[in-house]
Amino acid sequence: MKAALVRTCLMILLLSGFESIAHAHVSIAPNQSMQGATEKYTVRVPTESQVATIGAEVDIPEGVVVEVVSVPNGWKYELKRDASKRITGIVWTMNIPPGEFAEFSFVARNPRDKTELVWGLRQRLADGKVEDFTKGPNGIRSTALTKLAPRPQQ
Fold first, then answer.
1. What are the distances in angstroms from CA 21 to CA 26, 29, 100?
2. Which end of the chain has fewer CB atoms surrounding its CB within 10 Å, N or C?
């Protein structure tokens, strides 16, 4: 009887762990910052399917000024710019095998006049598929959103 209970508990723990892995998506952190602050943002890219990830993209919201980009050893990136030379997107190229993840960081200055930032997040897979993790069935995903609090008056 005890052995059956232990097996059942272990099975529930295993299944709940797989469920949380299956629901992980490309995300950006932090999900909260301050207006006008300089912040380190990190894009997390897990490979959840049986097909390797070969690229990740982030669209930089209007008003955000990217200052520097971190480049993990052996990976490449391309910057997208508008007519004024402001960075509007970053495309990383890499190989992330199934069951692994990578993180890419950049430092940016937040706008002073917005209360939230919506990041465009996409993942490119080796089979040619592109997954968008910005909008979900209920609107903007919380993993693509950064809330901006007002900066305290000095």
1. 12, 18, 11
2. C
Q: State the Cα–Cα distance between residues 61 and 28, nearest whole angstrom.
A: 13
Q: What is the CA radius of gyration of the chain?
A: 19
pLDDT digits (tens, 9 = 90+) for 18-67: 333 334 589 999 999 999 999 999 999 999 989 999 999 999 999 999 99
Q: Report yes or no on 10 lying in a domain.
A: no
Full domain range(s) for residue 131: 24-149
Write the secondary structure of 21-49 as one string of H (helix), E (strand) and C (coil): HHCCCCEEECCEEECCCEEEEEEEEECCC
Q: Which CATH number characterizes residue 86's domain?
A: 2.60.40.2230
With 0.70 as the threshold, say if the pTM is over it.
yes
Question: Would you say residue 18 lies in a domain?
Answer: no
Domain total of the chain: 1
- The pairing of strands 87-96 and 53-59 is antiparallel
